Amino acid sequence: MESWEVREWYADFLDTCNRHDLDEVRGFVDAGVRRAHLPGGADAFIDDLADLFHGFPDWQWRRIQVVIEDDRIAVHLRGTGTHTGIFRGIAATRRHVNVAEYVFLRMQNGRIAEVAGTTDRAEIVAQLTG
């Protein structure tokens, strides 16, 4: 894909994530996706999003910056949501969280094959308990 096509692909992916459409998100992810320091596979990827969306039904990401080079995408995002469901064993606090995220993706055959970054759920927990 050309870089402009990858940019549009990523915009579609982020929109799908922001709609919390996990079935459609699965279509963007390779079945064997590798994730740095996390269990691999599309099921684990989807389960982590489902956990986040359960705790934060209004969760949204805002794209700050996207850099594309060949089959790689680097993204700076801002994630926000209100804690109204159980997340990581923490009952709803109604607190609003706001976290910076930096995500690095490698695409293969039009799907996410590798993910690394600073999507740190510990920062979310800190904002809920601090």
From TrEMBL:
It comes from the Bacteria. InterPro entries: Cyclase_SnoaL-like, NTF2-like_dom_sf. This is Ester cyclase. It comes from Microbacterium aurantiacum.
